[in-house]
Amino acid sequence: MSTQDQGSLARQSMAFVLAGGRGSRLKELTDRRAKPAVYFGGKTRIIDFALSNSINSGIRRISVATQYKAHSLIRHLHRGWSFFRPERNESMDILPASQRVNEENWYLGTADAVYQNIDIVESYAPKYMVVLAGDHIYKQDYSKMLEQHVATAADVTVGCIEASLEEAKGFGVMAVDTEDRITEFVEKPANPPSMPGDPDQALCSMGIYVFETQFLFEILKEDAADPNSSHDFGKDIIPRLVKAGTAFAHPFSRSCVKSGLEREPYWRDVGTIDAFWQANLDLTDFTPDLDIYDTEWPIWTYQELNPPAKFIHNEEGRRGQAISSMVSGGCIISGSSLLRCLMFTGVRCNSYSRLEGVVAMPHVDIGRNARLTNVVIDRGVQIPQDLVVGEDPEMDAKRFRRTENGICLITKAMIDKLEA
């Protein structure tokens, strides 16, 4: 299929982004915001990746279903994603769980989130629906997945990542034949089925699905009427279509967007503190596994107006410097030393502080003489002078959220307890 034909399919499609999840494994990071609204990569939020993939793929109609503590997410969407023009057949709809079907139920599951908004989707009359999870980090051209969906005349096409058999135990896993037809779907299996021709790898669901719109609506209405259903794509809709319909797998490697720097397809579920910390600091590598400098596939976001970052003081022991680090606009590195750190917008690092492996969210203020190692700091936290984290595991665990791998999460409430 030509690039022009792929573009035509994208223009006939709507991306429906499921962005209502809390992400409870991120602990206090999601106490006040949904997982898709969590900051990532210095200036973006997690949801920006799914939205940017849609725009860059040529899909200009997008709906975002929100539910858990959605204010910061909705504010971000209003500020950063309000450039769509209806006269160009573009749209961005934010669909909070508002008990539209009845006065008792919020969104009961991922499938129900689409079902409750059928009338809104119908008003745009998209021929195809691309259903996306809003909480993963990756770059993908959805037009290639649409092309496969049409070419195979599938009822559903499921985006899949290739993972080792051990990693696959935590996912929904697809057994496929040599034509990529899904023959079995198993949720978190103890013995995952391997890929044809590659006994060490399995195909795991990414939570990305392509349907023809009218067919999807029929399935969702049947599912909504089933009292035994949990109204979820992964638990109900996809297994049903694997058994009674035509379901195909689409390996991520076929549509992953890579610049010349990226060696392997990159997809991350940053659903734990450890995974979140690691994925952010991976960006500071000399050749990172994810190239966010790729101008051919930009990650769109809300662009705050900020002055450039500034590094000041040049005295021994009080030198503003950052090595193997990313420092965003509005930051002032004032007589502080950073090694492999990621500073979000507007962070202040004061004199004599020493930071290594620090992910600091926007507008963090780090006091003089602080020594921080392997920490994630939530937005707006003021780190007291002389605070030491990362050198005494027992002390860290008493004061902060410390993971088994030794990463500490620091929030304002934790700091307030120290100072009480």
From TrEMBL:
<feature type="binding site">
    <location>
        <begin position="187"/>
        <end position="188"/>
    </location>
    <ligand>
        <name>alpha-D-glucose 1-phosphate</name>
    </ligand>
</feature>
<dbReference type="Pfam" id="PF24894">
    <property type="entry name" value="Hexapep_GlmU"/>
</dbReference>
<dbReference type="Pfam" id="PF00483">
    <property type="entry name" value="NTP_transferase"/>
</dbReference>
<feature type="domain" description="Nucleotidyl transferase">
    <location>
        <begin position="15"/>
        <end position="284"/>
    </location>
</feature>
<keyword id="KW-0067">ATP-binding</keyword>
<comment type="subunit">
    <text>Homotetramer.</text>
</comment>
<dbReference type="GO" id="GO:0008878">
    <property type="term" value="F:glucose-1-phosphate adenylyltransferase activity"/>
</dbReference>
<dbReference type="InterPro" id="IPR005836">
    <property type="entry name" value="ADP_Glu_pyroP_CS"/>
</dbReference>
<keyword id="KW-0547">Nucleotide-binding</keyword>
<feature type="binding site">
    <location>
        <position position="107"/>
    </location>
    <ligand>
        <name>alpha-D-glucose 1-phosphate</name>
    </ligand>
</feature>
<feature type="site" description="Could play a key role in the communication between the regulatory and the substrate sites">
    <location>
        <position position="67"/>
    </location>
</feature>
<keyword id="KW-0321">Glycogen metabolism</keyword>
<keyword id="KW-0119">Carbohydrate metabolism</keyword>
<dbReference type="GO" id="GO:0005524">
    <property type="term" value="F:ATP binding"/>
</dbReference>
<comment type="function">
    <text>Involved in the biosynthesis of ADP-glucose, a building block required for the elongation reactions to produce glycogen. Catalyzes the reaction between ATP and alpha-D-glucose 1-phosphate (G1P) to produce pyrophosphate and ADP-Glc.</text>
</comment>
<comment type="similarity">
    <text>Belongs to the bacterial/plant glucose-1-phosphate adenylyltransferase family.</text>
</comment>
<feature type="site" description="Could play a key role in the communication between the regulatory and the substrate sites">
    <location>
        <position position="106"/>
    </location>
</feature>
<feature type="domain" description="Glucose-1-phosphate adenylyltransferase/Bifunctional protein GlmU-like C-terminal hexapeptide">
    <location>
        <begin position="307"/>
        <end position="410"/>
    </location>
</feature>
<feature type="binding site">
    <location>
        <position position="205"/>
    </location>
    <ligand>
        <name>alpha-D-glucose 1-phosphate</name>
    </ligand>
</feature>
<keyword id="KW-0320">Glycogen biosynthesis</keyword>
<dbReference type="InterPro" id="IPR011004">
    <property type="entry name" value="Trimer_LpxA-like_sf"/>
</dbReference>
<dbReference type="InterPro" id="IPR023049">
    <property type="entry name" value="GlgC_bac"/>
</dbReference>
<dbReference type="GO" id="GO:0005978">
    <property type="term" value="P:glycogen biosynthetic process"/>
</dbReference>
<keyword id="KW-0548">Nucleotidyltransferase</keyword>
<dbReference type="InterPro" id="IPR005835">
    <property type="entry name" value="NTP_transferase_dom"/>
</dbReference>
<feature type="binding site">
    <location>
        <position position="172"/>
    </location>
    <ligand>
        <name>alpha-D-glucose 1-phosphate</name>
    </ligand>
</feature>
<dbReference type="InterPro" id="IPR056818">
    <property type="entry name" value="GlmU/GlgC-like_hexapep"/>
</dbReference>
<protein>
    <recommendedName>
        <fullName>Glucose-1-phosphate adenylyltransferase</fullName>
        <ecNumber>2.7.7.27</ecNumber>
    </recommendedName>
</protein>
<keyword id="KW-0808">Transferase</keyword>
<comment type="pathway">
    <text>Glycan biosynthesis; glycogen biosynthesis.</text>
</comment>
<dbReference type="InterPro" id="IPR029044">
    <property type="entry name" value="Nucleotide-diphossugar_trans"/>
</dbReference>
<dbReference type="InterPro" id="IPR011831">
    <property type="entry name" value="ADP-Glc_PPase"/>
</dbReference>
